[in-house]
Specification:
About 9% of the residues have low confidence. This protein is an alpha+beta fold. The strands form four sheets. Strands 1, 2, 3, 4, 8, 9 and 10 form a seven-stranded mixed β-sheet that branches. 27% of the residues are buried. A hairpin with a 2-residue loop joins strand 6 and strand 7.
Length: 213
């Protein structure tokens, strides 16, 4: 019995010095969820150190709005193509997604997205891609070709300021953007229940819109 107990103690002491096993890296064909999230073998992976516009987010280029969130996802999808993606895990976020640096061949996807202007450096979590962001901004690549709200601010409700519509344009811009008593920003379509009784007060921040977008 004494020999058996001694043997258990030796095994226990030996195990203390053993390093924890590293998480295996994920590799395989990837599905693009949005500009900073992919999925491999059913596992969601958030690209480390970058923040891309949300799928529903719109940005401005000149006077026109465009779906910059969709464009960011398309850019990531194009650079991946049909190639296998290899990801090196850095962390796990609160949504149980793996946070990783991912590559296609020699292309660092995190770095590529920032350098081409379809994501920004996510300073809250990493300073790895500040130089790429400066280059994208200087060359007016991707988002930097126009105006946009940082994705982190957009998720908190920030939006680009709307352009004032003059009286000659209002015939085609008939959607009423209204601020309710509860400070909520809502809109009313022609024929809607409250459309006729809603008055637009531009000094208060209310606007006429040409489309629901």
């Amino acid at each position: 019995m004494a020999r058996y107990s001694h043997f258990i103690v030796i095994l226990f002491l030996a195990s203390i010095g053993q390093p924890a096993k590293a998480q295996p890296n994920l590799a395989g064909l990837a599905s693009v969820i949005d500009g900073d999230t992919i999925e491999i073998k059913g596992q969601r992976i958030r690209l480390h150190g970058i923040d891309a516009p949300e799928s529903r987010q719109s940005c401005k280029k000149g006077k026109k709005s465009y779906r910059c969130g969709e464009n960011a996802a398309l850019a990531l999808s194009r650079v991946i193509g049909s190639s296998a993606v290899q990801c090196e895990q850095r962390d796990i976020d609160r949504y149980r997604r793996i946070v990783a640096v991912c590559r296609v061949g020699k292309i660092n996807l995190n770095r590529w997205m920032v350098r081409h202007g379809w994501a920004v450096a996510y300073r809250r979590y990493s300073l790895d891609y500040l130089d790429e962001e400066k280059l994208a901004k200087f060359s007016k690549s991707g988002l930097w070709a126009g105006r946009f709200i940082l994705p982190s601010r957009w998720r908190r409700g920030a939006r680009l300021p709307t352009v004032r519509v003059n009286s000659s344009e209002r015939r085609s811009c008939r959607i009423k953007g209204n601020i309710s008593r509860g400070k909520k920003r809502i809109y009313h379509l022609p024929g809607g229940r409250y459309y006729s009784q809603t008055k637009i007060n531009e000094p208060r921040g209310e606007r006429w819109f040409c489309s629901e977008e």
